[in-house]
Amino acid sequence: MTNIKDLAKMARVSVTTVSRVLNNHPYVSKEKREAVLDAVKSTNYQKNINAVHLSKGKTKLIGVVLPFSDHPYFSLLLKGIAKQALENNYHLVLFQTDYMQNKEIEALEMLQKKQIDGLIICSRTCDLQIIEEYLQFGPIVLSEDVKEINVSSTFVSHYKIFSNALEYLYQRGHRKIGYCIGRSTGANSYNRGLAYKDFHEKYSLSYNSEYIIDKCLYFEDGEKVINQVKLMNIAPSALLVTSDQVAAGIVVSCQKQQISIPDDIAIIGFDNQPIAKMMDITTIEIPLMEMGRNLFLQTINSEISNKEVPVKLIERKTV
Amino acid sequence: MTNIKDLAKMARVSVTTVSRVLNNHPYVSKEKREAVLDAVKSTNYQKNINAVHLSKGKTKLIGVVLPFSDHPYFSLLLKGIAKQALENNYHLVLFQTDYMQNKEIEALEMLQKKQIDGLIICSRTCDLQIIEEYLQFGPIVLSEDVKEINVSSTFVSHYKIFSNALEYLYQRGHRKIGYCIGRSTGANSYNRGLAYKDFHEKYSLSYNSEYIIDKCLYFEDGEKVINQVKLMNIAPSALLVTSDQVAAGIVVSCQKQQISIPDDIAIIGFDNQPIAKMMDITTIEIPLMEMGRNLFLQTINSEISNKEVPVKLIERKTV
């Protein structure tokens, strides 16, 4: 690749002169300027943009940490982030972590090394203390309710959502309620667990740990849930399912096995994805696209802000 | 931000000495080296990685152009690309284009400016001639059968898939066959259209342009398809649906409207996504994860290669 020294040699001028011409500085004679531009033309020279970044300190790249890009929850969040990035002329660097901590650290290190201008963490495994250490290097935005450290965030309250949904089921006569989650670790599941525990204490209901069904992420996991429920001594009468995809899988699996919804088991999904509407699934609407857009805007805004996004119960036919 | 000049001032040495210490060059006295390292420590100085890229010419970033990140086809392809990138210690820069040509050009320009080491184009709107111009700047890999230009690719033959699927339906007595696609422009749809036309000529069947249903991308589009079919004077007896999501939407919509599958209308989906398995949809299996992995490997490999990936018809209950 041609470099600035080659250009200087070809144009018979100094490296400084080439640099001045490339950066549009004054004080270069017309002859020298033309000689340099001729050399640029004949070599198809491309200014290395990393050199530009070096002087300006901006890459126009924002990192996005997410565990899986093919999960409808994260792909909708990513779509919102990407739409806003497009409008603001930024590009996204994707960190698909599969929840491996070292991959999250890599993203944080890219922020430290100025390879990205900011970082959006859609779901994390790192401790907040680790993230706090990297805040000095650039904006980091989280998609959860963070109180421990001073960082921007856009989130829904999973405690409130669970409390309200459990209350709704209780009012409709349900006393044996279970729930399905993607993973048992993580801040969101911690808050859900807390709401579940508080609900059982409030109404003095017996707590059955079997009713907490882990690793439910995709449509096909719905079948697994129903098979697990069938093995229980006392089956739950209702399930909160933290993904409409899994809820849809449950509905299809129940149809196949002649299990009646909501008579045998009631279902509340999450997100209000199109599949929930088409399959008449009662669900909690979470405005993921809007959340994604806001996460992006917080990343390029220097002020710290925390935004709780309201959710809505959509009543359909599975409760 | 601290720069190299500040460090020189603090350590009371020249800029050259600081640079030598930072790059581990010899010929620096022990005292000066320690003075520089103290300054680095006290200012928490971070070497700007763009300066490193400048000297090495590698970013370890690969760009991925795709129209929508939330469509199951592209999100599975992206998952495969991301998995392989993870294994090879690369990161991905996402270009979600919504099929806007200027966004594709931006990605190509980032390759030209060495901001990325290579580019995977999952689906394009740019002419091949435009892409050809950028091949001099770094590897570009396409996910389609390209003969016009010398570029690596991983693809399935949409002509063959359509021919075989139409033949399969013909053998089962279907003479009025329609199909649903995501967009009518684009190389894949061109090849599908060709197969469709050739099939009609081969069997002297009448060709009905109404049977080509455009803009079918998501689950919820299934309902739109059925509503459109109901308005036709003569409805097709079978549909090739180039997305399992749309096929699943069609199945659910037919259930609601008491339309019997396959008796009233037969359906063949595409991809063999989990939803097709759970809903017993006959489909063409396309190994998207494997294709994504190969696209990535081709990008970091300097040799040009073209790989056609075989597909498989999975017979279930919708034909």
Automatic annotation (TrEMBL), chains A, B:
Residues 2-56 form the HTH lacI-type domain. GO terms for molecular function: DNA-binding transcription factor activity; transcription cis-regulatory region binding. SUPFAM superfamilies: lambda repressor-like DNA-binding domains, Periplasmic binding protein-like I. Keywords: DNA-binding, Transcription, Transcription regulation. It comes from the Bacteria. InterPro entries: HTH_LacI (IPR000843), Lambda_DNA-bd_dom_sf (IPR010982), Peripla_BP/Lac1_sug-bd_dom (IPR001761), Peripla_BP_I (IPR028082). Pfam families: LacI, Peripla_BP_1. This is LacI family transcriptional regulator. It comes from Oceanobacillus zhaokaii. The lineage of its organism: Bacteria, Bacillati, Bacillota, Bacilli, Bacillales.
